[in-house]
Amino acid sequence: MKLIYEKSSPGRPGVRMSSIKISPTEEIPAKYLRSKPAQLPEVSEAEVVRHFTALSRLNFSVDTHFYPLGSCTMKYNPKACEAAANLPELTEVHPLWPQLRGGGLLTQGSLAILYHTERILSEITGLAEFTLQPMAGAHGELTGVMIMAAYHRDRGNTQKDHIIIPDSAHGTNPASAQLAGYKVVTVPSDDKGMMDFDLFKAALNERTAGVMLTCPNTLGVFEMRIKEICDAVHGVDGLMYYDGANFNAIMGRYKPGDMGFDICHLNLHKSFATPHGGGGPGAGPVGVVEKLQPYLPISRVEKTRDGTYALNYDEPKSIGYIAPFYGNFGVVARAYAYILSLGRDGMLGTSNRAVLNANYLQEKLRPLFGEEFKGRCMHEFVFSGEFLRKHGIHTLDLAKGMIDRGIHPPTVYFPLNVPEAIMVEPTESEDRDTLDRFVEVMAELVELAKTDPEKLHEAPVTTPVGRLDEVKAARDMRLSYS
Amino acid sequence: MKKTPFCATSERDQAEMFEFLGIGDFDELFAEIPADLQSDLLDIPEGLSEMEMMQHIRKIARRNSTNLVNFCGAGFYDHYIPAAVNALASRGEFYTAYTPYQPEASQGTLQAAFEYQTAICRLTGMEVANASLFDGGTALFEAVMMALRSTGRNKVLVDQGVSPIYRKMLRCYTQNLSVDYQEIPLGSNGVADRKAFEAALDDTVGAAIFQNPNFFGCLDNLKELVDKVHESNALAIMSVYPMALSVVETPGAMGADIVTGEGQSLGLPLNFGGPYLGFMATTKKHVRKMPGRIVGETVDHKGRRGFVLTLQAREQHIRREKATSNICSNVQLCALRAIIYLSLVGREGFLEVGRDCMDRASYAWHKLAKIPGVEPAFNRRFFNEFAIRLPKDASDVVSALVDQGIAAGFPVGRYYKGMENVLLLAFTEKRTKEEIDILVAKLESVLKA
Q1: How many CB atoms lie within 10 A of CB A320?
Q2: Would you give the DSSP letter of residue A343?
Q3: CB contacts, 8 Å: B191 with chain A
């Protein structure tokens, strides 16, 4: 498809932006001004609408396709939550108004949403206090490990120099730990897919600042010895960090705070149904136990004695400003609408069905793929496509074959500790017909891999482009149109 | 168990799935997990129907006041958003997709990102841009890390004309890293102090950070100062306001090495602080050190043009603790809004909006300067925002005007000691001559009182 710049023609008017002119009183010297206007497209409004509508139709999305992308929780994003968050009374509020004296009273609605969302997330996770400021999961991780660093500094724990992370963790965990000034110690998984307990104990010492865990982990496996792990870490005054990427499995049933975690982030764009946006914006609120409350980022939303909401900037031990304001308010508002819709029973009902769908799919697929990890899974599971290597077929080929059959592929080649990994997360949004259809497609693809692998190497053939040359992209570095 | 909203399985399906799995209820799915970990039923309200939820949120939302006439900017601006931006960005094919890991099934997102990167390059006068970062402040921090990695040095000089909110963020993010963070006070004419910068530039400085127009709205041409930064083998980082780039000299022409900024003004609502749009652009020389997702052009096996995420070897999912940054997602939907906005207003329209903003500010400056006791805080070179010095505490004045339905601006004393009487006012194309006249009249009467 042509680029918008290739559809441009000089003098074609876009949206009419201005009719009333006000005469300026001052001219600005030329040295401060650009000599030529930016070469933006010159395209009619109708053509812009057609262009982006046509582009949208080149995408797979939750609204158009089954999207079982493991570890991403691609559940349905309710339209009512969009409508609620798009109310002009919410979207048109300037973030600095509460900083004007008396201005807080102009934003009581928005502050109320922040306050109530924090309270509810605290209850759901069993943690004392929340901040909604982190703007993504990785941003929540960084906030969390910075809180860890602030805690240890405050306690005089100067010997703390590393964070323990299992090898199944998302890449963001080690990258975030490093940005908070910590070294990373990686612990392998055992044959059940859990963090190897003996190797973990061997790695733990007085210099351990904390442990970052995803539970259930990225293999879809619950860390059965979580209480022992927490006790051991607390024994060296370390802190337990809960990566909430997989919270959809346990929402309403288990609370990270009750398990013994001290810090936790949640991905509102996963468990709480806010849209992924083609790669953001998301939100990664962070909750902490009471002793870590003083280190949370500022500002803090508080309810005053007269029932109004106010912002508190006076927290001397706070790690400071991790965001310009109060986080991705628009995302938080969507999650709040979702939480109100689910309510007390809906939280548990949702995680129950997410786990049921995953187990159903896993059992249905087991005859095809054999068993990677025995037993029940949580909300997602991992298979290995290694047995197809002898036919010259890799997991990537299966993924491309799925695209031709109208299914967005699961996560592939992650987690890193499983060869030819295929990680499937169906979510609670899918009905049984969709799951059964997925099984049929997988069976068809495995059969094709064995009988006519060449056909799979050619996939996808139904998309606007076939497999793209990524080496060429990196070598040529054509990163903008010229 | 009550019906759970948004779940697809029927009671009958559920019973059959239980049977297939050989279980009697949901609890058996969790049977292997130690029972003492299970929590009690949550202490939160019962679920609401869609209608009840909407009524509830409408009621809360009405507690916000949205009929204020807004002259408050300070980096976040109340610009008009054409209706087609919302219409197109609300297409589910865009907003319910995820990161384009499967490029053949994501060409819509990828091509839009490539078009966005092109627009950012053309606005800033730079060679390459990434596909977006969280916001202008985190983008600036990422730029600092990128510059320090590139130069192998650890000191950063920050002009105090850089947004105080962003400087607070920089101090927060650098607290655990071996970064020597030093701020340079603003020059008396409201722009970067040349002499102070030249004196501070030594062979430990990896980056110098400027903002143009700066927090006070003052315009500068930083070319010569950037040359000095380069003479000491450091990189120049510039934080910019993209709407101003309709008319203001580009950071590329001034020699900037890394450009960042807040893209909210390009078709994103103010939304009480987010989601916003951090953008970043640089030169080809530094592209491999740039954080965040980058989309590149390539071809498929039949030679057809297509787009992919590229240079991924920089990123956390491959490099883990050695990555250029911990960031995973960007804010693709916000970048999409920006490219739709820029395409809709187009080359002429963008220039027109910029001039409208500038003209309104210029008109207001002239009128405000005539109020007895009011003085311009700095010079007359500004885009759409400027600071004035009042004969009274600016917070008191703003508070009195808020009561009269006007957000008269931002009192900068909150962030700058000794500037308690200084008020920062912003003017967008949405403000009318009548509204400006009312602002002037009411300000004058509050000052008299």
Answers
A1: 17
A2: H
A3: none
| B386 pLDDT above the threshold of 80 | yes
Tokens of A268: 């509102």
Rg (CA), chain A: 25
Secondary structure letter of residue A270 according to DSSP: T
Domains of chain A: 82-341 (3.40.640.10), 343-466 (3.90.1150.10)
Structure token pair of residue B95: 């907003």
Residue showing tokens 């290995």: A384
Which pLDDT band holds residue B149 (cuts at 50, 70, 90)?
very high
Task: Using alpha carbons, list the distances in angstroms from residue B196 to A332, B188, B333, B381.
Answer: 43, 12, 41, 22
The alpha-carbon gap from B25 to the nearest alpha carbon of chain A, in Å, equals 10
Residue reference for tokens 């078709």: B267
Residues A382, A387, A388, A394: is their CA dihedral positive or negative?
Answer: positive
For each of the domains in chain B, give its residue range(s) and CATH number, in order of start: 69-78+346-448 (3.90.1150.10), 83-340 (3.40.640.10)
Distance, in Å, from the CA atom of A74 to the CA atom of A69, rounded to the nearest integer, reads 7
Q: How confident is the model at residue B435 (pLDDT cuts 50, 70, 90)?
A: very high
A454: Cβ–Cβ under 8 A, 6 or more apart, which residues? none
Q: What is the mean pLDDT of residues A200-213?
A: 97
A297-309 average pLDDT score: 95
CB contact under 8 A, A58 and B82: no
- Residue A372 has what pLDDT? 64
Is the CB of A97 less than 8 angstroms away from the CB of B72? yes
Probe site for chain B from A251, A411, A465 (most B CB atoms < 10 A):
A465
Average pLDDT over residues A330-352: 97
B20 touches chain A (CB under 8 A): yes
Given the DSSP bridges, would you call strands A421-424 and A381-384 parallel, antiparallel or unpaired? antiparallel
Residue B33's nearest CA partner among A214, A169, A225 is A225
Asked if residues B389 and B374 have their Cβ atoms less than 8 Å apart, the reply is: yes
Cross-chain Cβ contact A346/B4 below 8 Å: yes
Residue A10 three-state SS: coil
Residue contact B56–A340, C-beta within 8 A: yes
Stretch A452-479: mean pLDDT: 96
Question: According to the model, what pLDDT value does residue A374 have?
Answer: 72
- The reply to whether A417 touches chain B by the CB within 8 Å rule is no
User: Angle formed by the axes of helices A108-125 and A329-369, to 10°?
Assistant: 30
Band the pLDDT of A373: cuts 50, 70, 90: low
Q: In A, residues 218-277, which contact B (CB 8 Å cutoff)?
A: 222, 224, 226-227, 252-255, 258-259, 273, 275-277
CB-nearest to B301 from A61, A356, A467 is A467
**Cα nearest neighbour of B283 on chain A:** A479
Within B377-431, strands assigned E span 385-389, 406-407, 410-411, 422-426
Q: How many CB atoms lie within 10 A of CB B419?
A: 18
- Which one of A31, A58, A356 has the shortest CB-CB distance to B108? A58
Helical ranges in B304-379 per DSSP H: 316-319, 332-368
Q: Is the pLDDT of residue B66 over 90?
A: no
Q: Do B272 and A326 touch (CB under 8 A)?
A: yes
The pair of structure tokens assigned to A401 is 């074959």
For residue B247, pLDDT beyond 70: yes
Task: Identify the CA nearest to B419 among candidates B87, B62, B164.
Answer: B164
Element housing A165 (H / E): strand A162-166
Helix (H, G, I), strand (E, B) or coil at A351: helix
Residue type, A288: V
- The answer to whether B334 and A281 are in contact (CB under 8 A) is yes
Q: Is B128 on the interface with A (CB under 8 A)?
A: yes
Q: Is B154 on the interface with A (CB under 8 A)?
A: no
CA-angle at B44, arms to B42 and B50, nearest 5°: 120
pLDDT attached to residue A103: 81
